[in-house]
Amino acid sequence: MISFRTLLYNGNTRLYLALASKAYARNIQYRGSHLLHNFASAVFGYLYACIWIGLGRDHSLGEYGMIGMMQYITFTQASLWVSSFTTNGLGIPQSVRTGQISLDLMRPVHLFAHLAAKEAGQIAYQFLYKSIPVYLIMLLALGLMPAEGGRTLPLALLALTGSAYLSICIGYLIGISALWTTESSWLHWGNQAIMNLLAGFFIPLQWLPLWLQQIAWASPYPFMLYAPTQLYLGKGDPALLLGTLAWCTVLTLVCLLATHVMRRKVEVQGG
Amino acid sequence: MNTTHVGQRTEQAAIEAINLCKSFRTPVVAGGKFAGVRSLFSREYKVKEAVQDIGFTVKSGEFVGYIGPNGAGKSTTIKMLTGILHPSSGSVRLAGVDPHTDRRRCASKIGVVFGQRSQLWWDLPVKDSYDILAHMYGVSDKDKNRRLDEFAGLLDLNEFWDTPVRKLSLGQRMRADIAAAMLHDPELLFLDEPTIGLDVNAKRNIRGFLKVLNEQFGKTILLTTHDMDDIEQLCRRVMVIGGGRLTFDGTTEELRRKIGLPTQIKVTYRDGYRLPEERLLSIHVVELGEHTLTVGVNRQKTRTMDILRELGHWGEIDDVEMHEPDFEEIIRQVYM
Amino acid sequence: MTQSTQMPNRTNRAIRRYIKLYLLLIRTSIRSRMQYRFNFALGSILAALIQLSEFLMVAIVLAKFGAVQGWSVYEIGYLFAVMTFSKTLYRTFGDEVHHLESYLVEGELDQLLTKPLPVLLSLMPRSFRLMLGEVIQGTAIMIWAFGGMLGSGQITWWAIPQTVFAILTGAVVLFAIGLATATCGFWTTRISMLQNMTEDAAQTAARYPLTLYPNWMGGLLLTAIPVGLVNYLPALYILRGELGIWVFPLLAAAACLALLLALRFWTFGMSKYQSTGS
């Protein structure tokens, strides 16, 4: 069953590109107000940086130092728009409410591939019009230059691409839960909260208590923010990318399996 | 429902609109790059006259239809009448009270239903919404229960009494909403497209209830609609708005007459027919069939008997059908 | 009866009626939420976990560095819990104020203008939010923080009524900030960006003692966006004996002033809405 669907999944590149570019284009008309929104996002980032600056006045900030932590927060805050702020459940809860879901499942395109392509367009838009502006505003506000002269950016962006895919998978799984509960938006918020903690958004993972570090490394979250940030700061081993790749594979399989279960559930309910 | 005071009220108009005007300023949206950002700082405005110099009086107990194409100023008028919007100039009196200086007092005298929105609580069962509204309007438990009993019978409210509003069908929701608007027993009811999106049965149900409210309880009703059946079956009086101005105000028959749309006559001839070279100017041919002929005639200008006599000259008549102009057609003519 | 005694009577009746309305709303909201027990439980547990993970972010920093600007881990927990309680109170009753944007975008505000109440008073009872998760989390942290500080003799039982007072005035301050922010929507329609700064970011900032921040930012958080009045200022007196007992009348006065200004602004915005309909 799964292998058959994977075949479909690979087969239709043109369609996926079209879906992605449509999602991208839908956003582009609002880019003016979105650019203003970035200001709010940068204020948040600035606030978090201020907390570290304040802490740095009384304490040494370990292997990062004050500048290092400012760079750290700058990169994670900008990356949130790629790895955390995705569409709630990829829009599945909405289509479950309206009953659209049974139609979506009947299409000749696999639901996961369909929604993933759409969300990829959304994330591409957010990267260009949110992540980059937030990154630049924060560099300016904190008086920083790109870490390591920007030489580490390509590798960090590669890791971030992986984290975009991971966030699509997690969004999809949250969306599917909407078939069983009306409270799936709580899972969405919960995911963002856990992200803040286990992905090392505000606090570098090595400063977490040991038990929490163990939990974190048993999950895909470190690869969504922490790993790209380590690569950006020039502290990470490129082998971290293998972890990203492994989690991408695992989550893809879980998503395909979940679709299978969902299809059965929808069929039993009669749509 | 207390109807003993009707006699005293007839002196005072239920709705009085005097020279109502409303203009909106909308910022000019610039095109090109960063349009969104630039329009935030732009100080250029375009003035749109949504409603211009509208005046009318509605007497207590009337049932008035207010129609017009989208964007003609219908909703803007309704919003000004109900105290939601302030007019740029002109004034409104509802039973003598100005809804703009005295909004809250007016609000307890009127019921308002928006077809596309609900005033009920989305997550609560229907009956709980009524309880909360009763408190909001200061309706006693006794009055509330008595009225709801009446409405429940007329609108079949019982079938969804305990259902959360979000689970109601559109027709059920509209019934529940109209009952909610009548809970405090207002004299005056405003309905903005109450039948929009409903199926035939639901429409019939709602029209029946509105008729009862108007005829048996003496409520004054003003409704906007796109459905001409609403107008034809309910309203004795129609007001038409076009381009922000009142273009017609009179009875439905007057409206029909004013347009003077042709009556269509379909004649079946036993052995075919022959069109004469010269015929009455008031008859024009709509459709030619082998044995049947459809003509349009203006009955304001020519008597029906004269027309039938003329048609009889063209062949031996087997059957005649007459169609009055379609109401939709009339309205289309008024809007044009 | 003279005119002067009639008026207060009528107002009294209206107020009593409004309170009854609210109690009814609370009762029915709870009842309808309880019909879907599983969803309610799941939502509450997740909300508590979200809150807990937010507190963990603060707690881990403290565990790593000991104290922040000389504030102990219990004191910071106290700051966090007071903010949680005030915010929960504000959002329980004022959630619709926070969500005014959707009313503006979908034109739902018109409906409220046809009600015989001031618009704000018809808006607030449109929903009653049950925030059990936040209450659980706030209570847990508060008990822990109180336990620690009572045990060390830093505070006495007197701190409890004082804290309750701070939570109440804090809720009023947060409501006023929320209302003023929402009112901006009458001009801009979209307000989520502004809320991000005046509500979310500001409340996050106030989880730490304000001395942590640059002076201008600390000043801003005590005046323009006075979230510091919710937890930081009361904590200075209640926990650390700084300032003086006059903090309480000051808090009450500031909360009243903030509310009054926000209401003025709201009325102004409302009249703008009614004359432009935008």
UniProtKB/TrEMBL annotation, chain A:
<keyword id="KW-1133">Transmembrane helix</keyword>
<feature type="transmembrane region" description="Helical">
    <location>
        <begin position="193"/>
        <end position="219"/>
    </location>
</feature>
<feature type="transmembrane region" description="Helical">
    <location>
        <begin position="35"/>
        <end position="55"/>
    </location>
</feature>
<dbReference type="Pfam" id="PF06182">
    <property type="entry name" value="ABC2_membrane_6"/>
</dbReference>
<dbReference type="InterPro" id="IPR010390">
    <property type="entry name" value="ABC-2_transporter-like"/>
</dbReference>
<feature type="transmembrane region" description="Helical">
    <location>
        <begin position="153"/>
        <end position="181"/>
    </location>
</feature>
<feature type="transmembrane region" description="Helical">
    <location>
        <begin position="239"/>
        <end position="259"/>
    </location>
</feature>
<protein>
    <recommendedName>
        <fullName>ABC-2 type transport system permease protein</fullName>
    </recommendedName>
</protein>
<keyword id="KW-0472">Membrane</keyword>
<keyword id="KW-0812">Transmembrane</keyword>
<feature type="transmembrane region" description="Helical">
    <location>
        <begin position="127"/>
        <end position="147"/>
    </location>
</feature>
Automatic annotation (TrEMBL), chain B:
<dbReference type="InterPro" id="IPR003593">
    <property type="entry name" value="AAA+_ATPase"/>
</dbReference>
<keyword id="KW-0813">Transport</keyword>
<feature type="domain" description="ABC transporter">
    <location>
        <begin position="35"/>
        <end position="268"/>
    </location>
</feature>
<dbReference type="Pfam" id="PF00005">
    <property type="entry name" value="ABC_tran"/>
</dbReference>
<dbReference type="InterPro" id="IPR017871">
    <property type="entry name" value="ABC_transporter-like_CS"/>
</dbReference>
<dbReference type="InterPro" id="IPR003439">
    <property type="entry name" value="ABC_transporter-like_ATP-bd"/>
</dbReference>
<keyword id="KW-0067">ATP-binding</keyword>
<dbReference type="InterPro" id="IPR027417">
    <property type="entry name" value="P-loop_NTPase"/>
</dbReference>
<keyword id="KW-0547">Nucleotide-binding</keyword>
<dbReference type="InterPro" id="IPR050763">
    <property type="entry name" value="ABC_transporter_ATP-binding"/>
</dbReference>
<protein>
    <submittedName>
        <fullName>ABC transporter (ATP-binding protein)</fullName>
    </submittedName>
</protein>
UniProtKB/TrEMBL annotation, chain C:
<feature type="transmembrane region" description="Helical">
    <location>
        <begin position="163"/>
        <end position="187"/>
    </location>
</feature>
<dbReference type="InterPro" id="IPR010390">
    <property type="entry name" value="ABC-2_transporter-like"/>
</dbReference>
<keyword id="KW-1133">Transmembrane helix</keyword>
<protein>
    <recommendedName>
        <fullName>ABC-2 type transport system permease protein</fullName>
    </recommendedName>
</protein>
<keyword id="KW-0472">Membrane</keyword>
<feature type="transmembrane region" description="Helical">
    <location>
        <begin position="130"/>
        <end position="151"/>
    </location>
</feature>
<feature type="transmembrane region" description="Helical">
    <location>
        <begin position="245"/>
        <end position="266"/>
    </location>
</feature>
<feature type="transmembrane region" description="Helical">
    <location>
        <begin position="71"/>
        <end position="90"/>
    </location>
</feature>
<feature type="transmembrane region" description="Helical">
    <location>
        <begin position="216"/>
        <end position="239"/>
    </location>
</feature>
<dbReference type="Pfam" id="PF06182">
    <property type="entry name" value="ABC2_membrane_6"/>
</dbReference>
<feature type="transmembrane region" description="Helical">
    <location>
        <begin position="40"/>
        <end position="65"/>
    </location>
</feature>
<keyword id="KW-0812">Transmembrane</keyword>
